[in-house]
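Shift notes (night). Ran Multiple C2 and transmembrane domain-containing protein 1 while the centrifuge was going.
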Amino acid sequence: TNLVGTSNADFPTGDPGMYQLDVTLRRGQNLAARDRGGTSDPYVKFKLGGKEVFRSKTIHKNLNPVWEEKACIPIDNPREPLYIKVFDYDFGLQDDFIGSAFLDLTSLELNRQTDVTLSLKDPHYPDHDLGSILLSVLLAPREEQREVTMLMRKSWKRSSKVTSGMWSSGFFFFYKNCDVLPYMPSRTGNLWHRIYSPSNCVLMTLFFQTQSLRLSDLHRKSQLWRGIVSVTLIEGRELKAMDANGLSDPYVKFRLGHQKYKSKIVPKTLNPQWREQFDFHLYEERGGIIDITVWDKDAGKKDDFIGRCQVDLSTLSKEQTHKLEKPLEEGEGCLVLLVTLTASAAVTISDLSVNSLEDQKEREEILKRYSPMTMFHNMKDVGFLQVKVIRAEALMAADVTGKDSFSKSDPFCVVELNNDRLLTHTVYKNLNPEWNKIFTFNIKDIHSVLEVTVYDEDRDRSADFLGKVAIPLLSIQNGEQKAYVLKNKQLTGPTKGVIYLEIDVIFNAVKASIRTLMPKEQKYIEEENRLSKQLLLRNFIRMKRCVMVLINAAYYISSCFDWDSPPRSLAAFLLFLFVVWNFELYMIPLALLLLLAWNYFLIVSGKDNRQHDTVVEDMLEDEEEEDDRDDKDSEKKGFMNRLYAIQEVCVSVQNILDEVASFGERIKNTFNWTVPFLSWLAIVALSVFTVILYFIPLRYIVLVWGINKFTKKLRSPYAIDNNELLDFLSRVPSDVQVVQYHELKQDPSHSPSKRKKNNP
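Came back to this:
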């Protein structure tokens, strides 16, 4: 089918990814005022098939905003209009609707840039003039799809002699599950008999399989990133004062496509020092543009806009660190950044027939890459992860259709490791889908958690959640195919269905240990903190439990002073005299070392009688119920949301309680051998500290520490500050995370029927 030309009346339907719509959002004209000051803070959303595909930046206090933002949107069905909605941003409140319009894609001429002016309308007030939006649009077939189409033509010409020319007037339609279906004109007579005759079955099967594999490659390419952009936010200089005291509380927001980050807040300064690093995935060969905005944090009211700037990645050379001083537009001052573009990590998607670890040569190369001999080469490349997503069984039915209420789902699977996120294809109308896909990732932190989530695809709205599992990399047993019981969103209890995975982890233990003492990678897909009665209560109880440990210890010491138990008090008194008389500084890490060894002995000997923590689990289940209620009412922004100042204070208290409780629980779980790798690492570190303190006087140790701290900025001006002890503890799971990562046992009475394992 020749799709290049001026014809736009007969678009083929159901061609996922066959078209690409390049949209440039130019500007708005005479938009309606929605704020008290007679102005608006407009931003634009593009929606396709009920799903948001693009959101612009917010232009503050302007009724004639200029965006000049570009979006690249894959088009599944050209007959489906693109909806444009304009809103007025209100911080902490419900955003005000300004107006909407739609763009009929079938009215566009293929491969031709078109300027479009759309008048905004409000269905409730059809006669009001709400302004207009100016766009530049270009609709074209995707290059990769065009190559496959040409390949199919060539393949068809080669096979036309065998099929007696029976396909000479056929057209091809491409579907999302990568099948190729023929559409035949009615004048072909007995053509259908010839197509499905036994002599042609083998040829047709081979042809369809070959093209299906090529189209499956396109699905993989669309989600694999081509590079990594590392951005280090160093500092701001001479920023605009936004507070009455002549200072600001600045923080920075970054955005590259759908990836977003937010820096920490530096209080009361016009020359903030951030020293934070963020990594973005780069999906386009030609680069992209990072949007950067600077804000002043104001408690209880809308944050003030300080300024903005952009980084055009297409102008930067790869494999080189660039120091950029970007002046802020619409404001004062500048930002100092370090930007590095590197080639893509080894992230792949393949079928079960292509297995890196089963190929002996490839396996040896991977093992050599992470052998002890390469411990100081590329410290960010800690290990290799391979995930086989085989199948799922007995999933929840998300769709109910037909007169007989036939229940089904259209499941697909999302595999996530930190910010690396890959998807399988969708298996339609199936509660027992088979994906048979292999995903590979580079491991940057061995303490990361692999998350596998199953969703039900829904074209009219966002995907429905079916189940999820979270698997810490250190708990994985290599090469073992396991059935994981799917959990609910909070990972606290089971939901319907199981998923079969086979996972392999290869890593360098030395690199992993060194990486443990460095800051954790920040996730750009973070849930926004919100006020929750159950969450606040849970964090308060966790905090209370940590404090009660200290109080009970104080009571125990007090009972020794009171001689409630003479033998115990006598033993404590003799121990006190011995320790004080012979005390040396090295005895502190030695005591911690003995505590770790004692708990290890209890676990190995089977004398560890600690009960499973059901208190936190019960609280998490209560919180899940509340979240379900909140989800139903998420569109209703009521009175509580308007009291933003009170809510923000409560959320801050809630988060502080969580941080303090997690800190205490992580210390406890280090000594309880919750993660053996970290406990062994603590033993090594404490042993080294004990030896150092035994042989080296304290003054020399303090001298070396002070010299290092004072000269660090001189030796490495742009080094990111960190605390090794806090970075170590951040890898130890809290009690809440222990419950979330706990693997559920499959109930034999409800287990799905066993299948015979087919040979891939």
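Residues 360-516 form a domain with the Immunoglobulin-like fold (CATH 2.60.40.150). DSSP finds 15 helices and 29 strands in the chain.
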